[in-house]
């Protein structure tokens, strides 16, 4: 763990207090609340304050992959403290719980609060931020990160591993100076109604009830929403950098497959010319599951080391499913018994991984049986459930950590242990999966997945995850038609992890005859885009820019185009005549300059795309498609390819042709495409693709620039802008001017 580093850093942090009046939010008469006055500057644009008694609390930032990247934070633009003096206030109640109140303006929109699958906008919502499976609204989800950003250009992080209940602009204090005026809903016949009667009069603040005696509040500023998110990610230690192979194609085989069945499936990938980088083994690889033994089931995998080597020799990695709950049949059971919590999950022990002894027991076994033979990573399942699935709130753990805090942070704790004690220790990168995370997680190369399966929700997850330092895969498992399969495979190929999870369906990429070629084509396109995508992750790692991003982080995008449905009074179904707002969360940015607008559900073959201001071009043809307008695209018009649009001046490095394993991208010649009319450049990141040597500055940024854009004179130039590393990708074999 990096507690020590973090505490050192905390001691060193400069104690400066910023109270710059940027916007005057009318505060309530604070009543019994006390202003938070002790704000400490962490770096440019980041302030933290401690509230109440923190001695028994866990901060998510204590579990982060790395300490805050102070230098990178200070390189971002100047941004003043976003609140007026004394505007943020708190109360420690009689029940010792902390309440925090943060003012909001009337026209302010709030976004975020973690990997929410029901929408990005969280204004006027009450949310319970507990780790859970996904829920339809209400806040409970796989990564209920207590961090929001505001349309006014700042962010707030409740840095505490506690249950939180948040009232976003909901509730009206009697002493507020900004309550809406009362309106008579039933005026007498001779009077006109003074204005719209509001079923839920908007509140003037965010009020958060923390189920703990103390907490830390962290505030981030920025010149843009993107910069606010960058600051949150940099505060959390920067973004994760996967190994290059992690960005290739993943296929999880049926849970009961044996070594020969995996071999046969891989042979079919080769014969059908489908890329594959990682095979995921589901629970059947173990002697028992669930609860788990973490030991190889020799009836299915008689020679795990030989098998792993055989695959690796072909450039294919193995990823192992596990949940953390330990079976009586495991060699670890007896030693882990005293180091585990009071309750069982799936009848297995729940180890207390805040204890070094417990970590050592597990990681020694994993080193020997898995990593030592070349296993590349894990899929950590079942760390997200709630009351029925995990331990109760009142469960106890030997370290003294409450059942609640353990539940909020277990997914993070698993990532912390595996990343630090297994992979970093060996100087080998991993790309892995986990089903729960929480605050300050951006540095972990773990991708969240879900048992949910709505394509629309999966698209929303791509956007919401980008606002809170989380990686998310809208994995494909099965489909009811060729078209649905194609649409899902296209979406997942433009996400953080291109994964088919056939643990139960047994599907293969070619299972839907009518779309096999189109599916192969999109996987190959992903492979060709590896240099572009890998650089996007490097920007995440170094500058905190999410590689795949919600449109609200994009310059020139209007977030005000939701569909508003007026409410109609109906005493049985809508007694308060409440309207509805339908958000558009079905398009997003992939890397620096590609806008992705997948076909899905009712938009299976035709859909609208809202282009931000500026000129945009079709990825495939280079043709101009619009500027700040909404266009309609069809699958027929695109030859069944996923709708992709590129910004003016974009330079996009691709492999000159597809490869079937990411390893083969190393040294592979490039095709560099240039779109639109404006000059532009792309900084291509290069390192060894697999170790942590980049932390010792062994990497380089190779600039591909199109400087002169005069007709006949367009030239691509190359230079090394920084770093000392070696080349990773090959020379530019083709320069394509896409827009004539
Ligand atoms: C589920 C998980 C699935 C699959 C399955 C295996 O909990 O979400 O992806 O791994 O377990 O039993």
Describe the 3D structure.
The chain has 740 residues and is α+β, with helices and mostly antiparallel strands. The chain has four domains: 34-183 and 194-235, glycosyl hydrolase (family 31) (Immunoglobulin-like, Sandwich), CATH 2.60.40.1760; 244-551, Glycosidases (TIM Barrel); 552-564 and 577-591 and 594-647, Golgi alpha-mannosidase II (Immunoglobulin-like, Sandwich); 651-738, Immunoglobulin-like. 19% of the residues lie in helices and 23% in strands. It contains twelve helices and 36 strands. The strands form eight sheets. Strands 19-18-17-16-15-14-13-20 form an eight-stranded parallel β-sheet. The longest helix is centred in the middle third of the chain and has 21 residues, at 403-423. The protein is globular and about 80 Å long. The termini are far apart. The relative contact order is 0.10. The model is unreliable at 1-29 (pLDDT under 50). Beta-D-galactopyranose binds at residues 255, 282-283, 321, 381-382, 451, 501, 503.
């Amino acid at each position: 763990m990096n507690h020590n580093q973090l505490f050192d850093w905390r001691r060193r942090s400069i104690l400066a207090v910023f109270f710059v009046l940027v916007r005057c939010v009318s505060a309530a008469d604070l009543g019994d609340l006390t202003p938070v006055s002790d704000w400490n500057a962490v770096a440019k644009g980041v302030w933290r304050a401690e509230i109440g008694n923190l001695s028994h609390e866990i901060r998510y930032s204590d579990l982060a992959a790395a300490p805050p990247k102070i230098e990178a934070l200070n390189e971002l633009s100047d941004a003043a403290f976003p609140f007026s003096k004394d505007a943020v206030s708190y109360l420690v109640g009689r029940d010792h719980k902390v309440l925090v109140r943060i003012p909001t303006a009337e026209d302010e929109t709030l976004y975020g609060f973690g990997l929410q699958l029901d929408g990005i906008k969280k204004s006027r919502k009450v949310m319970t931020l507990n780790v859970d499976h996904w829920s339809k609204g209400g806040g409970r989800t796989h990564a209920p990160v207590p961090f929001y950003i505001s349309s006014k250009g700042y962010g707030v992080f409740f840095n505490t591993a506690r249950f939180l209940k948040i009232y976003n602009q909901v509730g009206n204090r009697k002493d507020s100076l900004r309550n809406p005026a009362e309106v008579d809903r039933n005026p007498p016949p001779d009077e006109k109604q003074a204005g719209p009667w509001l079923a839920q009069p908007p509140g003037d603040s965010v009020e958060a009830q923390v189920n703990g005696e103390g907490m830390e509040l962290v505030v981030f500023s920025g010149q843009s929403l993107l910069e606010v998110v960058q600051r949150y990610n940099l505060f959390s230690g920067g973004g994760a950098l996967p190994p290059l192979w992690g960005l290739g194609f993943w296929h999880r085989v049926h849970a009961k497959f044996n070594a020969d069945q995996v071999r046969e499936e891989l042979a079919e990938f080769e014969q059908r010319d489908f890329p594959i980088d990682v095979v995921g083994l589901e629970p059947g690889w173990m002697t028992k599951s669930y609860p788990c033994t973490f030991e190889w089931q020799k009836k299915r995998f008689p020679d795990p080391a030989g098998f792993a080597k055989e695959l690796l020799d072909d450039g294919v990695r193995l990823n192992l499913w596990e949940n953390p709950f330990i079976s009586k049949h495991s060699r670890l059971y007896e030693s882990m018994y005293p180091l585990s919590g009071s309750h069982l999950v799936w009848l297995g022990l729940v180890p207390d991984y805040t204890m070094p002894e417990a970590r050592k027991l597990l990681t020694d076994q994993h080193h020997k049986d898995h990593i030592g033979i070349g296993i590349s990573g894990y899929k950590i399942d079942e760390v997200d459930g709630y009351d029925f699935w995990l331990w109760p709130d009142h469960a106890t753990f030997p370290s003294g950590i409450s059942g609640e805090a353990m539940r909020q942070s277990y997914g993070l704790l698993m990532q912390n242990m595996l990343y630090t004690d297994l992979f970093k220790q060996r100087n080998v990168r991993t790309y892995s999966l986990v089903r729960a995370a929480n605050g300050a997680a951006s540095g972990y190369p773990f991708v969240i997945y879900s048992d949910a399966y709505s394509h629309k929700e999966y698209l929303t997850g791509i956007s919401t995850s980008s606002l809170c330092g989380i990686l998310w895969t809208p994995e494909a498992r099965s489909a009811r038609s060729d078209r649905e399969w194609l649409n899902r495979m296209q979406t997942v190929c433009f996400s953080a992890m291109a994964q088919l999870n056939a643990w139960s369906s047994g599907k293969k990429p070619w299972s839907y005859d009518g779309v096999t070629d189109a599916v192969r084509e999109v996987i190959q396109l992903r492979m060709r885009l590896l240099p572009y995508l890998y650089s996007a992750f490097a920007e995440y790692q170094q500058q905190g820019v999410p590689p795949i991003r919600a449109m609200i982080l994009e310059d020139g995008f209007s977030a005000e185009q939701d569909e508003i449905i007026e409410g109609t009074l109906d005493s049985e179904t809508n007694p308060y005549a409440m309207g509805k707002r339908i958000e558009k969360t079905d398009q997003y940015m992939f890397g620096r300059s590609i806008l992705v607008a997948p076909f899905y559900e009712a938009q299976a073959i035709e859909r609208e795309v809202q282009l931000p201001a500026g000129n945009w071009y079709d990825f495939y043809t280079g043709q101009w498609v619009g500027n700040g307008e909404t266009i309609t695209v069809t699958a027929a018009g695109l030859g069944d390819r996923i709708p992709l649009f590129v910004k003016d001046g974009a330079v996009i490095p691709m492999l000159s042709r597809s490869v079937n394993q990411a390893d083969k991208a190393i040294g592979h010649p490039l095709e560099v495409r240039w779109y639109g009319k404006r000059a532009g450049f792309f900084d291509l990141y290069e390192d060894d693709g697999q170790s942590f040597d980049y932390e010792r500055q062994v990497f380089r940024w190779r600039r591909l620039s199109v400087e002169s854009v005069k007709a006949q004179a367009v030239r691509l130039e190359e230079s090394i802008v920084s770093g000392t590393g070696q080349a990773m990708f090959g020379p530019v074999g083709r320069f394509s001017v896409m827009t004539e």
